[in-house]
Design a protein that fits this description.
There is one protein chain. The protein is α+β, with helices and mostly antiparallel strands. The chain has 4 helices and 4 strands, in the order αββββααα. The protein has a domain at about 20-95. It has helices at about 20-30, 80-90, 100-115, 120-130, and strands at about 35-40, 50-55, 65, 75. It has a two-stranded parallel sheet with strand order 1-2. The radius of gyration is 17 Å and the shape is globular.
């Protein structure tokens, strides 16, 4: 899940079912939020779960839609599609990642995206994360 101009949340799921994705959506996205997806039926209950929902239908060749006629195609999933493309490109040289290690790779990629730092600045962000006090002290 990716907020345009904001943070990304990546999770590996045991399966692709509404019962599996609903708790993740509820924990990540505030009720009432407008969610853009493709036409995949797993997202069919978003409105019933309390979200506003708009789709683009890739199966019909639709990739972006201008709903208000202002020339700006505001309904699209291009942001997350671009993110997945970057992730695949980053993972490609790491051929053969063991399934049990993949969540660590995904977590690192999520961290890098969310801190929006590269090079030496990324090292500083990593160190700051390591020395930061715990978020939920015992």
């Amino acid at each position: 899940m990716l907020q345009r101009g904001g943070r990304v949340v990546i999770r590996m799921l045991a399966d692709v079912k509404q019962a599996t994705i609903r708790p993740l959506i509820a924990a990540t996205i505030a009720p009432g939020t407008l969610v853009h997806t493709d036409e995949y039926d797993i997202y069919g209950r978003l409105e019933g779960w309390g979200y506003r929902h708009k789709t683009v239908c890739h199966g019909k060749g639709e990739y972006a839609r201008d709903e208000d006629g202002d020339g700006f195609h505001e309904v699209h999933v291009n942001t997350i599609e671009g993110f997945w493309s970057l992730l695949r490109s980053w993972l490609r040289p790491h051929r053969g990642i063991p399934q049990e290690s993949l969540p660590l790779y995904l977590a690192f990629f999520q961290f890098v995206h969310n801190v929006r730092a590269r090079g030496r600045a990324l090292l500083g962000a990593l160190i700051a994360q390591l020395i930061a006090p715990p978020r939920n002290p015992p």
